[in-house]
What does this fold into?
Amino acid sequence: MEVMIRMQKFGDPAQKTYNFRIVAIPKCKPRDGRVLEILGHYDPAKKPAQYKLDMPKLEKWLKNGAQMSDTVRSLYNKNKKNK
It folds into this structure.
């Protein structure tokens, strides 16, 4: 089973406010499908945009062969530079 680390969209479509969870999910599942584990969150509505990653969990998934989406990779690299 191939695992992707990507964003899952949630929020209020009536007000057009969305947040994202950073999740580990099987590659064949849809974006909003059932996740294996929640690894963080991203809120683009705040100025500046806020995000939080659970680095130990994320690195555990990467060691097990999970692939990151481009956006998650960007947040991951920002997080590593800030620490």
The CA atoms of residues 27 and 68 lie 11 Å apart. DSSP finds two helices and five strands in the chain. The chain has a mean pLDDT of 89. The beta strands are 3-12, 17-26, 37-43, 50-53, 67-68.
